[in-house]
Specification:
The complex is a heterotrimer.
Chain A lengths: L2 H22 L3 H21 L3 H25 L15 H20 L17 H10 L5 H22 L4
Chain B lengths: L6 H15 L4 H38 L15 H11 L10 H16 L19 H22 L3 H32 L4 H6 L5 H4 L1 H15 L10 H4 L9 H26 L8 H4 L1 H23 L7 H29 L5 H35 L10
Helix pairs in contact in B: 1-2, 2-11, 3-11, 4-5, 4-11, 5-6, 6-9, 6-14, 9-11, 11-13, 14-15
Chain C lengths: L3 H21 L3 H25 L6 H31 L13
The chains are: A mainly alpha, B mainly alpha, C mainly alpha.
Chain lengths: 169, 397, 102
């Protein structure tokens, strides 16, 4: 087993473990903090995949904005800081069954696919992934339309969120 | 290669020779040398941090017409060590009902968010942790971890003052990240790279001359990000006692305090790197790597001094004014500045260098003047709404 | 070198964990936490396929960035809805938000 594989396994178990804590912890603030741990794990996975830009954006967008927003929302939607009552609904066993079946099904599907054990080719020397990504995002031959649609979506979400959460009183 | 030019490489090669001579595999030796390099950088930073305590106390006392620490050692230089001993032997308290794990992780994260910034600081042409090609974004990402540490400290302390302070501080930090990120794109446009090393090396002319307004917006956003006066809403000792770190004592408080000082120094350094040429100073960096480090530390000290000057001169701004200033003034201004800069940079790509520089400078001055005019008209209208129209002419007989 | 299958299995497992969270939690904010996990699992897949496929084709990274944008939009609107419902009904338990039943 190479060093890279050991690092991958450590990070993967850390990510999955904290992901599991997100969905099972009773205290919602702790769940949000475990989510941050999971997001860090995913950022490291991106770095292992040589996608440095995605790793940094993951930290900026997810941890710097989304996770903080979650913590704020948890604090704003409770009268006291204790967590009473069950945190799972009545059909939690059904949810567990469905998710186990999903994982099993995905695993089964992947086993039957011949590209599974593929290994990555080396990145060609002098290849500037960030520059290529920037060009792809604004080039009319590539992804300028999805990019613009995403920005329209963000503006719409911004306006909608302000409208919905605004205190009209 | 000359030792004065590239001391790190020579030292690393020498160590590699010793370690492999001991029978260590080469890859393990490389990893060990990497760790040693990080250890040396961090130790140097922590020693510098101790010195910064003295600088801060001495400078603030001069601003306030005092002498400052002058009892322990010459000029009070040993005073920070006495402070550290005091912090170490203080009782380490944890408030009742605190979330122990989160409470104890928060100061560590706060210190860490500052220290990891130094991974991308180019100290000399040959001395730099990693040349990340997403350096500008990395700066913001480290700031995100700082934000996280503050909200963790505020929540885990189980204290109303701490929670309110953390809320305010996080609201300020999250909102001022936007103009800061926008302005960080301006050196990126000029250098054609987000890497700090490329930005430094492309500054044949300091970027402050072609984007003075950008440098100013970066400084304002950096001060807000630091939570220093006039943006020290999170601490606000006269109303929130001390904000998010109120429940911390001993060395845990010391971590927040030292982290804040080092953060201010670090942002002084980034201001120097992005807009004042980093280690470049009339070819001095070519002479020796040590001189280059001295130049960048000197520039960072000047930036730090300006941040202190602002902190100890201005009053605290109210939280709603601060956020309105960001969302209604600074953010639109940063967006417009970015668009104007990108447009002019593309239009003047083939122009002569003196023409390019003067047009860039003038466009920045013009933009700053227009935005101040707009703000003036708006504020006069607001004042009239409250006080009624101003009587300009007094009737004379 | 890590084979592609490891990344895909990690993503599948993370997706299932998120799905469990989204299906079983009572608190609306916790349901959104589960959805975030699922979106992250998708992003791992996209980045892995970019790296293991043709590196010069940036589709994987571009769509990962669009997923970031969608996640940000989803969280902003979702949490705004949760806060709005909390103001009206004084609860964030998904089972109790049943105004549409009558």
């Amino acid at each position: 087993m190479t060093a890279e594989q050991i690092i991958f396994l450590l990070v993967a178990f850390f990510t999955l473990g904290s992901g599991f804590m997100v969905v099972t912890t009773r205290n919602l603030i702790h769940a949000a903090l475990w989510l941050i741990a999971t997001l860090f794990g995913v950022a490291v996975i991106f770095a292992l995949l040589d996608a440095g830009f995605l790793a940094v954006v993951q930290v900026v967008v997810y941890i710097g904005a989304i996770a903080i927003l979650f913590i704020f929302a948890v604090m704003l939607t409770r009268k006291d800081m204790r967590d009473q009552g069950p945190q799972m609904n009545r059909n939690w066993w059904f949810g567990a069954l469905i998710s186990v079946l999903t994982f099993g099904g995905l695993y089964f599907l992947l086993q039957g696919w011949n590209g599974l054990s593929k290994t990555a080719a080396d990145i060609p020397s002098g290849f500037d992934a960030v520059g290529e990504l920037g060009n792809a995002l604004v080039s009319p031959n590539a992804y300028v339309l999805p990019f613009e649609v995403a920005s329209v979506l963000l503006v719409a979400a911004l306006v909608g969120a302000v409208y919905v959460a605004f205190n009209w009183k | 290669m000359d030792f004065l030019q590239d001391p790190l490489k020579i030292a690393a090669d020498w160590l590699l020779g010793i370690f492999t001579g001991w029978g260590m595999p080469e890859i393990a030796a490389q990893v060990l040398i990497g760790f040693l390099g990080v250890l040396i950088l961090l130790s140097a930073l922590m020693v510098l941090d101790i010195f910064l305590v003295w600088v801060e106390r001495k400078v603030v006392s001069r601003f306030q017409d005092r002498i400052g620490p002058n009892r322990v050692g010459p000029f009070g230089l040993i005073q920070p060590l006495a402070d550290i001993i005091k912090l170490l032997i203080k009782e380490d308290t944890t408030p009742e009902g605190a979330d122990r794990v989160v409470y104890n992780i928060a100061p560590l994260l706060s210190m860490m968010s500052v220290l990891i910034l130094w991974a991308i600081v180019p100290l000399a042409p040959t001395m730099l942790g990693v040349d990340l090609n997403v350096g500008a974004l990395y700066l913001i990402a480290a700031g995100a971890i700082g934000t996280l540490s503050i909200i963790m400290a505020g929540w885990a302390s189980n204290n109303k003052y701490a929670l309110i302070g953390a809320f305010r501080q996080v609201a300020v930090m999250v909102s001022f990240e936007i103009p800061m990120l926008t302005v960080l794109l301006i050196p990126t446009i000029f250098a054609g790279s987000m890497g700090m090393s490329a930005i430094t090396q492309n500054q044949d002319i300091w970027y402050v001359w072609i984007t003075p307004l950008g440098a100013l917006i970066f400084l304002i956003a950096a001060i807000a990000e630091l939570g220093r006066a006039p943006f020290d809403m999170g601490e606000a000792e006269s109303e929130l006692v001390s904000g998010y770190n109120i429940e911390y004592s001993g060395m845990k408080f010391g971590m927040f305090y030292a982290g804040e000082l080092l953060h201010a120094f670090t942002f002084g350094g980034f201001w120097a790197i992005l807009f004042f040429g980093g280690y470049r100073f009339f070819g001095l960096e070519q002479v020796s790597a040590f001189l280059a480090v001295a130049v960048v530390v000197f520039k960072a000290m000047i930036g730090y001094w300006i941040i202190m000057w602002i902190k100890y001169t201005l009053l605290r701004i109210r939280i709603d004014h601060m956020l309105a200033f960001n969302w209604k003034f600074l953010t639109p201004l940063a967006f417009v500045l970015l668009m104007v800069t990108a447009l002019l940079n593309a239009l003047l790509a083939d122009a002569a260098s003196w023409f390019y520089i003067s047009i860039m400078f003038l466009s920045n001055v013009l933009l700053g003047w227009i935005s101040l005019e707009v703000a003036r008209v708006y504020s006069r209208r607001q004042r009239e709404k409250v006080e009624g129209p101003k009587v300009v002419e007094v009737a004379h007989h | 070198m890590v084979p592609l299958s490891w990344y895909l299995i990690l993503a599948a497992a993370l997706f299932s964990v998120g799905l469990f969270g989204a299906l079983s939690r009572r608190n609306a904010v916790a349901i959104l936490l589960g959805i975030e996990l699922m979106l992250n699992a998708v992003n791992i897949n996209l980045a892995a396929f970019w790296r293991y496929g043709n590196v010069t084709n940036m589709a994987g990274q571009v769509f990962a960035i669009i997923v970031f944008a969608v996640a940000a939009a989803e969280v902003a609107v979702g949490l705004a809805l949760v806060i709005s419902v909390y103001r009206q009904r004084n609860t964030v338990i998904a089972d109790d938000i049943d105004m549409m039943k009558f």
